[in-house]
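Sequence only, no structure available. Ideas?
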Amino acid sequence: MARHGGRQRARGRQIDGILLLDKPRGISSNAALQRVKHLFHAAKAGHTGNLDPLATGLLVICFGEATKVSAFLLDADKRYRGICKLGARTTTADAEGEVIERRPLPSLNDAQIESVLARFRGDIEQIPPMHSAIKQQGKPLYELARQGVEVERKPRTVTIHDLQAVRLAGDELEIDVHCSKGTYIRTLAEDIGEALGCGAHLGALRRTSVGPFQLAAATLPEQLEALAEQGVEALDALLQPIDAAFADWPRVQLTENGCFYLGRGQPVQVAQAPVSGLVRLFGPGERLIGVGEVIEDGRIAPKRLFNR
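Reply:
I predicted one. Tokens follow.
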């Protein structure tokens, strides 16, 4: 929604809300974000989890006060459809790298594939790829990789909630992955290839969900550009409210008095509040105040408050 009244900054409109974008292949997440921000004439915007230029699919873009919930969506589970190209390993573990090894494809059946995929469900350890944004002594690993430098990386524990084979056609194994934050699908594809005995790299990737948000509700950039010709009101109609990011969290209703103390960083006692966890905070008049957390003594402490 657009916020009216008060002084408008020259650099853009003050709007709050969440846009679901279907990012096309071949552009970075930041390039997609900047294009959308320009179309909306928005003063402030950010995305909630990078997609490589090779990847397509759901990019959640937050405007204004919604940028304060970005961290919660960065921590959320994700879902992907990926294609493992069997029989070839590359320098980057995906289709953008150079092939460094080829191996013949074994004769695979459904039972063999399922047996391998079962090894990767649950908590697993991954070694982050060199072509990643993880920093080593202040430098992103991908910068070192471009210089031909390889450094030791510590394994990281991630969770694969579900992993299913969608189809096997020739040298392509399509998988559906439901995973925790921090999971590298490139690394997963490469590891699956090793377990199958033929090697593999990630040929294509499409993100289908981020937390509560689904790709089916996303809009393509060209659709946004067509709507922009009708005016920003047509674009604003696509925005989801801020609390859509955590609509399944418990709701806590506050009095004006409670809002006052929370606004000053003080925990408050609320009748019939949940016993633990994160909650949505609402003030009088269905006003979304922010996100709170139930602390040990049962009171609710502010975690992220919105200036609305």
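Residues 5-10 have pLDDT under 50 and may be disordered.
Hope that gets you unstuck.
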